[in-house]
From TrEMBL:
Keywords from the UniProt entry: ATP-binding, Cell membrane, Kinase, Membrane, Nucleotide-binding, Phosphoprotein, Transferase, Transmembrane, Transmembrane helix, Two-component regulatory system
GO MF, any single term: kinase activity
Cellular location(s): Cell membrane
Organism of derivation: Staphylococcus ratti
Descriptive protein name: histidine kinase
The Histidine kinase domain, residue ranges: 284-488
Length: 489
């Protein structure tokens, strides 16, 4: 059992390890992504505009290779003067300031010389974060363009905090916008919090699974033992999805309680049989002793003296007393023989009361019985075999269904046969023939999922009475028909 529990715990711990490892990998990927996410645009930073010859000295143009590269990266291209006035595209007559403020995180500039003038080449990506800046009128557009430069050392860097954009002198170190940094740190923090919560949830789920898988069967066995202590000699409803896996995990415990249940039922039936034969034996003793005791009593009254006639009477009394002693000895020996030969004994017994006593002995309440004859009707056969047959029919239904099924028993008696129709609404039997099902059980007796062991006892009881046992095909549950020939004593 220790090895099985070690394997089970190893399985659940492996599942937990897999979940936590997956969460850790996801967290690491998110962390790397967020920490490496750039705060400024960098895909067009390395363009050297001086290498591209101008199309015309009269007005500013942008070379086609740069426009194609910007199109591929989904960026809008502008050329401005130092004061932010847009000179390219030629159809726009405005200042670049408002566009830069709206797209501060997606904008970048390159300062270059075109002819004798200095310009800014500006590219703005169409997708990304858009900060909400409330102090746009106070912002110097030249400083803003300088803070967004990618070539050379920026004299300024910008910072956005609570909607206010401010500038600070560049110390020579590449500094990231603190507002965006704060958002990245916050996102990373929230990601790790989410992973931590997911880890806690996975621990709770794994703990619940372990508790359910390992403790629920123990509660089932506890209810079974309580049933036995109350005289209900049957297993309770399992309410466990995989009953066979439970039996494999708690094999020794299941076998012990199952064997105890069987032994208690066997002892109960044996005790009832002993009581039955004991009653018969006492009745027989009373009958056999009645006649000689009457003679002893009568002759003793005639004894008055020691005459020859009295001597004869006394001799007769002595003979009768010896006869009584022999009768008692014979009856004792006969009782022992009869109790040892119960399996081969035939007698007439009341059918209905015997059936009701078997059901009462098991203590199972979900059984309905129908009799088409009066309560006093009897059957001539072996009472022990008959009771065992009924017990194993019912016990098979209880033993091989996780939820105890409803059972229906119908008895019909005619001139030739006692007909028994047995049904339950459980999971039913596999599609074997009856003989194959019984034989399968003999070759794998430890497999309690099969009905064969109980069926072999039922078949032996039917065979003893020279009857017929039939397994009726059924879409739901097990269905048997038993025909026992009626015989006279």
């Amino acid at each position: 059992m220790n090895k099985r529990f070690v394997l089970k715990f190893a399985k659940y711990m492996s599942l937990y390890f897999l979940i936590t490892t997956t969460l850790a990998i996801i967290g690491f990927i998110v962390f790397v992504y967020l920490s490496s996410k750039p705060s400024h645009i960098s895909q067009l930073d390395n363009i050297e505009l001086e290498l591209y010859p101008p199309y015309s000295p009269q007005r500013v143009e942008v070379p086609k290779p740069i426009l194609e590269l910007a199109k591929q990266n989904e960026a809008d291209v502008y050329v401005t003067k130092l004061n932010g006035e847009i000179v390219y595209p030629h159809d726009i007559h405005a200042n670049i300031k408002s566009r830069l403020i709206k797209n501060a995180y997606q904008s970048h500039s390159i300062k270059y010389k075109y002819g004798t003038e200095h310009y800014y080449f500006v590219f703005i990506y169409r997708q990304g974060e858009n900060p909400n800046i409330v102090n746009g009128k106070e912002i110097d557009v030249h400083k803003l363009l300088e803070s967004m430069r990618s070539n050379g050392l920026n004299p300024y860097e910008f910072n956005i905090n609570n909607g206010h954009l401010t500038f600070y002198a560049n110390s020579g170190v590449d500094q990231t916008d603190s507002g965006l940094m704060q958002k990245q740190v916050q996102a990373i923090f929230l990601s790790w919090v989410a992973i931590f919560i997911a880890n806690i949830v996975s621990i709770l789920i794994i703990s619940w699974l372990i508790a359910r898988r390992l403790s629920q069967p123990l509660f089932y066995y506890s209810r079974w033992i309580q049933n036995l202590s109350k005289g209900k000699l049957h297993q309770p409803d399992a309410r466990i999805k995989n009953r066979e896996r439970t039996r494999q995990t708690y094999e020794e415990l299941d076998d012990a309680i199952f064997t105890l249940n069987k032994q208690l039922v066997k002892d109960r039936f044996y005790h009832d049989q002993i009581q039955y034969y004991k009653t018969k034996w006492i009745s027989q003793i009373s009958h056999d002793l009645k006649s000689p005791l009457t003679s002893i009593y009568g002759f003793s009254k005639l004894v008055r003296g020691a005459t020859e006639t009295d001597q004869q009477h006394l001799k007769l009394i002595s003979e009768k007393a010896d006869y009584i002693r022999e009768v008692i000895d014979n009856l004792s020996a006969q009782f022992k023989f009869e109790t040892e030969q119960m399996a081969h004994h035939r007698e007439s017994f009341e059918i209905q009361s015997t059936v009701e006593r078997v059901i009462s002995t098991l203590g199972f309440e979900k059984i309905t019985t129908v009799f088409n004859f009066s309560k006093e009707m009897t059957f001539y056969g072996n009472k022990l075999y008959f009771e065992r047959m009924l017990f194993n029919l019912i016990n098979n239904s209880l033993d091989h269904n996780a939820i105890n099924p409803n059972i229906h028993l119908a008895f019909k008696l005619d001139d030739t046969h006692l007909k028994i129709d047995y049904k339950d609404d459980g999971k039913g039997l596999p599609s074997y023939k009856l003989d194959e099902l019984i034989q399968k059980s003999y070759t794998s007796k430890k497999d309690k999922s099969e009905h064969g062991i109980g069926l072999s006892i039922i078949k032996d009881a039917v065979k003893f009475h020279q009857g017929e046992l039939t397994l009726v095909p059924s879409q739901k549950g097990a269905h048997f028909k038993i025909h026992l020939p009626t015989q006279t004593q």
